[in-house]
Specification:
With 182 residues, the chain is of the alpha/beta class. The protein has five helices and seven strands. The structure holds S-adenosylmethionine (SAM).
Length: 182
């Protein structure tokens, strides 16, 4: 459950406009990605509505700014971050809120910076959970292709059995998107 492999690749390929700048992790959880990004030299802000997760991050790295907030209520500063990520968190928002947050993520990035997020696909075993929203392939492809000021750098679809935090193995169907701000 981490974007470490994508971010490592992007850093190696010098994909960031400014190699080390401000970064934002939306729905950071206990900070798998947050801590990695901080170790890479980014100044990281981590947002989650669960204060216990934020406390765990702070204990690991006191330089990380933790912010207790709903993702959909958090105001993303415009043209400020080199990197904004949302890993396995946007599915908990309504689709309308998730669409707005994704646009705000792009608006929050400096030119040449990177946005990475994933959303859940319609073949996921938990697709009909009432607290999740899902996408089908055509819908997510169309949505990301129409985001102004962003170039689609990577689009990955993967599915198969995988672990969950608390409920053992399940069938995952996930779309992963990497955008570069124009
Ligand atoms: C499955 S975890 C993913 C954590 C981390 N991003 C990762 O990939 O390991 C989802 C996280 O999103 C947070 N979350 C869910 N809905 C949220 C919301 N509306 N606003 C803020 N955080 C939310 C949860 O508290 C949880 O920490």
């Amino acid at each position: 459950m981490a974007f470490k492999y994508i971010i490592t690749k992007l850093i190696k390929e010098n994909s960031f406009a400014t190699p080390k700048g401000a970064a934002l992790d939306l729905g950071c959880g206990k900070g798998f990605d947050t801590l990695f990004i901080a170790d890479e030299g980014f100044d990281v802000q981590a947002v989650d509505h669960a204060s216990s997760s934020l406390d765990a991050i702070k204990k690991n790295n006191s330089n990380i700014e933790v912010l207790e907030s709903k993702i959909e209520h958090f105001s993303i500063k415009k043209n400020y971050y080199s990197l904004i990520i949302a890993s396995f968190s946007l599915q908990f928002l309504s689709k309308e809120d998730a669409k707005k947050v994704i646009q705000d993520m792009v608006d929050g990035i400096v030119s040449g910076g990177v946005v990475i997020f994933n959303v859940i696909g319609d073949r996921d075993a938990w697709a009909d959970r009432s607290n999740w929203h899902i996408w089908d392939l055509e819908e997510i492809k169309k949505f990301v292709s129409e985001i102004p000021n962003a170039k689609l750098r990577n689009f990955n679809q993967y599915e198969g059995m995988g672990d969950t935090i608390k409920e053992g193995l399940k069938y995952w169907h996930v779309f992963e998107v990497v955008l570069i701000k124009k």
